[in-house]
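Q: What would this chain look like folded?
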Amino acid sequence: MKWMFKWFFRITFLLLALVIGLVLAKDAILKAAVERQIRVQTGMDVKIRRFSLGLLSPVVSIEDFKLYNPPEFGGTAFIDIPELHVEYDRLALAERRLHITLMRFNLAELNIVMNEAGQTNLVSMIDMSDARRLRDARPEDFEFAGIEVLNLSLGKVRFLDLKEPGRSRELRLDVRDRVLKNVRSESDFLGVLLLIWLRNGGSLSGRAMDSPPEIINVPELLRANSSSQPAVAPAPRR
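A: My prediction, written as structure tokens:
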């Protein structure tokens, strides 16, 4: 009986060590899986310095995310995101609804490249992603249920023309710690970006926040700006 307990202890210890090892390595395993899936979906190379998925808390954190253009677009960086932090509603996720309670999104740089054939990397990536999404469409895809709080930082956008480099331009957004509340759709997000741009004189230049950042309630802001627009008079009859 002694040898039985001895082997039972060894097997138990081995299984425990294996489980602990998998828990400790889960972020590295998931990071590799995420990188592989992004390569498949976009056709672009990707590097992630750190990926963290909470086991006991519904939190996903990504640090230093970089997506690189394919050779026909110069092989340079396409997008550089120093931080993407997401806290989500676990109960909603179980119902296949993506309800985000908090998101910190920090975009350092976006490079839109036009190759010598006149195609842009942005359109090429969207077309490829849409084609794969239609091919791999599944009825159990998640429904977007909104973002309660979005902390947004935007760096710069560069337009690079490989055929005529003299036409290349750079737009510095300099938006830091803009807090948007109740973002319910893509149109909400784009509408608020436009309003931020108009508020800053059409330059989209933000400012460093020495005090707590301005909190923008998206539905109220969009409703207020919509109601303040002058009515368009009907065209006179001829």
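The chain has five helices and seven strands.
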